[in-house]
Amino acid sequence: RTETIGFWGPVVVVGVYIVACVLMIPGSIITLGAGIIFGVLKGAVAVSIGRTLGACAAFLCGRTLARNWVSAKVSDSARFAAIDEAVGKEGFKIVLLTRLSPIFPFNLLNYAYGLTKVSLGNYALASWIGMIPGTIMYVYIGSTIRTLADLGAGGREKTRGEWIFFAVGLVITVLVVGYVTRVARKVLAQSGHIEPTGDAAAAPARSAD
To answer: Which of 96, 130, 178, 204 is most buried (most C-beta within 10 Å)?
Structure first.
């Protein structure tokens, strides 16, 4: 039961997410797990904080300790060159749009942004805002898994109204994330700086990673 986990459960999620971002480990399982264990609200808050701090930690590593390694990784990437140019003009906007669009590999981009001129403040705020839709969607899916597991284990059967509310909420969440993703991709393509196709090594991660 989550009541026995107390304050330290979400703190552990935050810590694990920071480590996962620095080590470039996909965070989808962590996000789903947070939804399963804590539910939508507490899970989304813990994951949002963890992902943002983890992205900032990787950003700072890319700007300092791992700068040479990251430079070698993206040196031949036309897409990163386009991102770098765009960030020089509209740093906050470009970071926000690339976070909203799942075509960009999350973990590599955290490090790659460290090579650009975007400030840590703009990067952190844009990343946090841009990752919220995907975070909520994956946490919501995790909470759905928990609900189904509780039902299978003989927990209290939900009323028809509760099921409708839950299903509608999930559908709306997925539709909103899909819409936001399409808008972000369209804006990036129309900007003339970034073409949302091409080699995956230069494209950054899925929203929940």
So the answer is: 204
